[in-house]
């Protein structure tokens, strides 16, 4: 192998091995954002999963799930008598101009623009309970961030 070739090393698996893989779970496209911090995958089921690089060691390249959302649904084009699959054909990150991230996703018919952003939430209701359902002290909660993927245009 020459010095200019890129060598891929498999180092991380998401999900459990026991899960049955369906056709809809097969990844159909992958796209990194310009900094490499975010990785978006699209699958044959029309879902987009965004992974964020771990902050600790950026040279190692571990990624964790950042957001998941349904981008495309199956539909029928009655004019052409054609079924349109929900499969994501392409994902493209747009240049970042504010704190939000924007990405485009497309199937065989529709291009959608998505705004992915973080919002701080106030501790209230279920946010005050731990994983066992016990109420936590609100002063012990430092940050509640929710990730929103909002369709801007299709």
Topology as a string of helices (H) and strands (E): EEEEEEEEEE
Average of the residue pLDDT scores: 79
Q: Total number of β-strand segments?
A: 10
Q: What would the principal axes of the Cα set say about the shape?
A: globular
Which percent range fits the helix content?
A: under 10%
As for the number of domains, it is: 1
GO molecular function: protein phosphatase regulator activity
Keywords: Repeat, WD repeat
Pfam families: WD40 (PF00400)
Protein name: PPP2R2A
Task: Describe the protein.
This is PPP2R2A. Keywords: Repeat, WD repeat. InterPro entries: PP2A_PR55 (IPR000009), PP2A_PR55_CS (IPR018067), WD40/YVTN_repeat-like_dom_sf (IPR015943), WD40_repeat_dom_sf (IPR036322), WD40_rpt (IPR001680). It comes from Bugula neritina. One of its GO terms (molecular function) is protein phosphatase regulator activity. The chain has strands at 27-32, 38-43, 47-53, 63-70, 75-77, 82-84, 90-93, 101-106, 111-120, 145-153. Helix content is 0%, strand content 40%. The mean pLDDT is 79. The chain has a four-stranded antiparallel sheet with strand order 1-2-3-4, with no helix packed on it. Strands 7-8-9-10 form a four-stranded antiparallel sheet, with no helix packed on it. A two-stranded antiparallel ribbon has the order 5-6. It is built from no helices and ten strands. The radius of gyration is 19 Å and the shape is globular. The N and C termini lie far apart (45 Å). The protein has one domain (26-153). The protein is an all-beta fold.
């Amino acid at each position: 192998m020459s010095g200019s070739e890129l060598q891929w090393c498999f180092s991380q698996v998401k999900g459990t091995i026991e899960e049955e893989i369906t056709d809809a779970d097969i990844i159909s496209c992958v796209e990194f954002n310009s900094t490499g911090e975010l990785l978006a995958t699209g699958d044959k089921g029309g879902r987009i999963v965004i992974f964020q690089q771990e902050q600790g060691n950026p040279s190692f390249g571990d990624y964790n799930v950042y957001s998941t959302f349904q981008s495309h649904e199956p539909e029928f084009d009655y004019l052409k008598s054609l079924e349109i699959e929900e499969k994501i054909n392409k994902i493209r990150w747009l240049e970042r101009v504010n704190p939000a991230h924007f990405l485009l996703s497309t199937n065989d018919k529709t291009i959608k623009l998505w705004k992915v952003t973080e919002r701080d939430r106030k501790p209230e209701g279920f946010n005050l309970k731990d994983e066992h359902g016990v109420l936590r002290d609100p002063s012990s909660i430092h940050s509640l961030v929710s990730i929103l993927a909002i369709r801007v245009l299709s």
